[in-house]
Input
Amino acid sequence: MPFIGNSSEHLLRLCVIIASGTIASAPSQAAVGEQVMVYHEPGRFGGWPANHGIWSWGNEILVGFSIGYHKDLGSERHNIDREKPEEHVLARSLDGGQTWSIEHPAKEHVLIGTAGMRHGTLPTDYTEPEPVDCPGGIDFTHPDFAMTCRMPGVDTGSSRWYYSYDRGHNWKGPFRLPLFNQPGIAARTDYIVNGKRDCMLFLTASKSNNREGRPICGRTTDGGKSWRFIAYIGPEPKGYSIMPSTVRLSDRELLTTIRRGAEEGKRKAWIEAWRSNDNGESWSQLEDPVANTGEGNPPDLLKLADGRLCLTYGQRAKPFGMFARISSDSGKSWGDPVTLREDGGGRDLGYPRSVQRLDGKVVTVYYFWDPKTGTERYIAATLWSPDRQLR
Output
């Protein structure tokens, strides 16, 4: 079955304190795994796989991300030129993440993007269609199914979604997502398939002041024709609560991890965990899997084949890098952080998505910046084993 976009199943937790701008954590294991380049091009910016999604069919892996143009805007900002086009692309691997090829669905007029209101624009020779209502009847259990959700902006507005029956070679959409009686919906790809016509989405809604944001869940049982609001995940925050990543634990139990940020001048950013025992109708908070991610980074939650949970995340504070945590008790507690890499050149990195290969290794894809490869942000993957004895 395909890996479920941002509902991707992942890994967390970090006991941390702030010391002179550096995160001091519980001792992490030594860096593990093999580093692979997915996309790097001089003068270009590659970013944000978490916004797009990842899917896998055995050792065939597909991941979405954004390509823009590099512009030096300093260490505190994303180094992307907002005045130039940004394209939403796909990278495909047929060998479990060892090698990758880039696909340009927008240029081929088979997908994908947003109206470009937030992160640049689509290529000038492509016009993104206006979203329409979905007629329904989608088979979410199709063996080659993939789904992606996109947003026009982070604060207000409606979002759109697309689906594919051929492993992302061709896509249908865009289809309009309802607002669920919210001021706005900023959709990234996080979904769980429950049955042939039954699918749950986990989204970020605008808060009552039209600011970003708070997580919600919605559901369709007619193959995408209609969606109903199920519940808020937690109370409306004073800061932001965004970008859920969700897995199913049992027929009725769900676990989601959420990117959190506080009010200005207070605790900066961390990752929360929430559990539902009634298929998303109500949620209870668990211990935070990651106490501090520096300036903030979304989680990626993956349920491993043996039932453990794997959380991956980027750290936007020294040591800048990618980390993971494993839970053997359904998210009640988390092991020490595993260092995937800590050679980042600054804060502009992260947004991971992960899948597990048939041999048990995890492929974690993210965007990164390190001085060895130049100034450009690029897409990388770490191929690693969640089992110590296999490293």
Remarks:
- Confidence is low (pLDDT under 50) at residues 1-22, 109-124.
- DSSP finds no helices and 27 strands in the chain.
- Residues 6 and 190 are 4 Å apart (CA to CA).
